[in-house]
Predict the 3D structure of the following.
Amino acid sequence: MSLHETFTEDLLEEAAIEILGELGYEYRLRPDIAHDGEAPERNDYKEVILEYRVREALFRINKDIPREALEDAFRQVITFSNPSLVENNRYFHRLLTEGIEVSFKEKDLIRTKRAFLIDFKNKDKNHFLVVNQLTIQGIENRRPDLILFINGLPLVVVELKSASDENVGIESAYNQIQTYKKDIEGLFNYNALCILSDGINAKTGTFSSNLEWYMNWRSEDGVNIAPLTMPQYETLFKGMLAKERILDIISNSTFPPLNGA
């Protein structure tokens, strides 16, 4: 029996979580952070951000901005008014990368500054978390295989399929992302990247990309091409999701791309 015949979706999920742990991501169990769990971090199953972590990061990163102004920044993060998911995502990405404009009174003057959700200059001042099978309530209840949070923001969605089932693969993982977009649309207001893998192949793209625009990740260190013997999912996770690299990708890219890629 080959490795592909025994490499189930559960094993692939475990392998991905292990790699992320090696990269410095915290791992939390889905039931624990539910609103009715042992260490709740959500108000209900509809909530897609981890509010406490988002607020904590805002207050910690922007110590020179008054709390009241940071509360206004948080309101902007959770308020989406456009009927277009793509436009809502683009709005949030501007807040994420350019900062959230807030005004406050200081010495009888009105000052305007930008509050940031992530410290892009110092990776260690951010918190990286992976949660598997997180239940999200929308049109239907869905559980993405993995969601990667940075400072409580669900920026990366990972969908995995089993290499041992010849009837599923990358295309099935892609189709599952399309289902999530329809049923739990709110998750994708914040999404920066999606990752697909069947244990053999692994690709990454944006939620608005067609499958043909999803790409492989070829290098673990950004310099040397990974050997063909190294599983693609391992190359992608270790190469793209290393803290400094994923922050660089998010801060220097346009999401969603204007050409739909």
